[in-house]
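If your schedule permits, I should be very grateful for your opinion on a structural question. I have a record of one protein: its chain in single-letter code and its fold written as discrete structure tokens. Would you kindly read the sequence against the tokens and tell me how you understand this chain to fold? Thank you for your consideration; the sequence and its tokens are set out here.


***
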Amino acid sequence: MVGMGWFMCMMMMVCVVSCGEAAPGAKFEELYRSSWAMDHCVNDGEVTKLKLDNSSGAGFESRSKYLFGKVSIQIKLVEGDSAGTVTAFYMSSEGSNHNEFDFEFLGNTTGEPYIVQTNVYVNGVGNREQRLNLWFDPTTDFHTYSILWSKRSVVFIVDETPIRVHKNLEDKGIPFAKDQAMGVYSSIWNADDWATQGGLVKTDWSHAPFIASYKDFKIDACEVPTTADLSKCSGEEQRFWWDEPTVSELSLHQNHQLIWVRANHMIYDYCFDAARFPVTPLECQHHRHLIKSNYNKLEEPTDEEENDMLDLAFGLTKAARLGCQVIARPELDGVRLAIPSATRNFAVDGFVPEPH
């Protein structure tokens, strides 16, 4: 019986791992179809191309709708001067109270980095933008962009590196996208009224056509029979690979990757935009935001005696504060505190500390 128990345990482990592995990439026409400007959507062998010129952009959509799972596409973005253009890869439901998870790639002038903007809509409400610069040139080769959606979270992933996690915080009274089936979409269009440097740089049509290329299409998700029948995918008795705790929560390594991305490549987070949101959005008070701008939220020291003490501290940095100068507030949730590698010891009442 011990041997049989061990065998069954191993079988369960193998099933969990193998069920979580991505299926081989499908052909474009097996999963998708052109949704508008069909003459600007071209299949070239294993590669599908969307074209933008001064007459039209283009887009494609999935043939089915899904509730939870992982969708991935390899994309090579517009080369050269792409200012004013936006290439999007996203999931979305329908209607005014729709849910949506966005990757938007904001074009730039030649030599300037692409900006990746992610956004999350829940029940028709968005305004949850985050922006970052990638750690590679996305125009010279294909890179994989993925959305992993489970009952616990939505994870945006680039080349298997998580760049954003939007958690289910329904227990805090915050709505989460879990009850609307979504299609998968991609498109390219002209957005020179806002896309590049806030609309200051316009699209140079002399560089048209602007072409985004796609390949290796993967959808490993729960397909719904109709948008009204979600029981196949959402019932409590249903359990899929993305529901496993080892998948629906970031591993230690993935958490380190996310911290690295946010610390080194994040350039905007709506949670810290006090001009747009004088009151910190509720979900921001519970999500962990590990970015450099957290340090800008620390109070500037005003007490002269405390400043004098701070000046004597070992390894002083711009972000250094005395413990008594840090006031714990919700927007500091997730800030990493670094303890200096050494201290300066002072004699108290004649006591001289021994070296150790």
The helical segments are 2-19, 28-31, 231-234, 245-248, 252-265, 304-311.
